Amino acid sequence: MKRIVLLGANGQLGTDIRRAFGDSPAELVPLYRNQIDVERTADIGAFLRELGPFDALINCTSYHKTDECEDFAEKSFAVNALAPREMAKACADAGAVLIHFTTDYVFDGRKRTPYREPDATSPLNAYGVSKAAGEHFVAAHHDKYFIFRVSSLFGTAGASGKGGNFVETMLRVAAGGAPLRVVGDQIMSPTHTLDIAETVKTFLTEGVDDYGIYHCSGEGECSWHDFAAEIFRQRGVSADLREVASTEYKTKARRPAYSVLDNGKLRRIRPMPHWTDALRSYFRLKDDER
């Protein structure tokens, strides 16, 4: 039986990984921040050694408050770059597979066709810089790794520290009757975290060994405004929604104008659903939980 360690088990993605592995014969060992704080990077190696033998480590920890990362770049680099480096070293010593997640924000958005894995990274903000650095550290210190670049996540657990996720934020604001002004010139691919979790399960339970970077996002593309409109359409909600330019919505961190990921490499192993279908699945899960 495989023993799989999961860091960040109570986050949006970690919760869905626990859900996906619920019927797996593998032993999933969920770990939480009160057990290990990955910002204390010097402690990671010893902590993982004390856990005993393991076959894989799934790292769902991340400092992902994009605007806040601009002011706390040192923390961003510790959690998103130095911590994965220590995990890669520990996995190399243990002969274990490392699964790590990064972001579409490693790209600058100058392309107008979906980004492929070999495309050069050129992040626009501190968060993206730290995630790109983490990719390099993982590759430098271990051979048996899968890095999944993901995009615009939504899951039933909500994003830690972000007050839920974009889907729930839109529905909450609309229910209050407030007008919604949503950016229409930033294009991405919304992704249900359960689809990522099922992909991770496939890689680990089916023994995939074509290591490296994979793009793993919802198929298709849309703007944040289009995403909001589809949320309201699927839920039958009438909202005061208007499209605005990103120049009207000032943020501390710059975002890429186009960060759609090409899933072609992943598609050969496990196709991802279209983002609109993934949104329907998300709502079915939410309804079942009520």
Task: Report what the structure shows.
The protein is α/β, with parallel strands linked by helices and 290 residues long. The protein has a domain at 3-162 and 190-218 and 261-273: Rossmann fold. Helices cover 39% and strands 16% of the residues. The chain has ten helices and twelve strands. It has a six-stranded parallel β-sheet with strand order 2-1-3-4-5-10, sandwiched between helices. Strand 1, helix 1 and strand 2 form a beta-alpha-beta unit. Helix 1 (12-20) crosses helix 7 and helix 8 packs across helix 10 (275-289). The longest helix is centred in the N-terminal third of the chain and has 22 residues, at 73-94. The protein is globular and about 55 Å long.
CATH class of the domain at 3-162 and 190-218 and 261-273, named Alpha Beta
How widely separated are the two ends?
Answer: 34 Å
Proportion in β-strands = 15-25%
Oligomer: single chain
Name the poorly predicted regions.
none
The averaged pLDDT comes out at 94
Instruction: Please give the count of helices.
Output: 10
Short structural summary:
The chain is an alpha/beta fold and 290 residues long. The protein has a domain at 3-162 and 190-218 and 261-273: NAD(P)-binding Rossmann-like Domain (Rossmann fold, 3-Layer(aba) Sandwich). It has helices at residues 12-20, 44-50, 66-71, 73-94, 126-141, 166-175, 193-205, 224-235, 264-267, 275-289; strands spanning 3-7, 27-31, 56-59, 97-103, 145-150, 153-154, 180-183, 187-188, 191-192, 212-215, 222-223, 241-244.
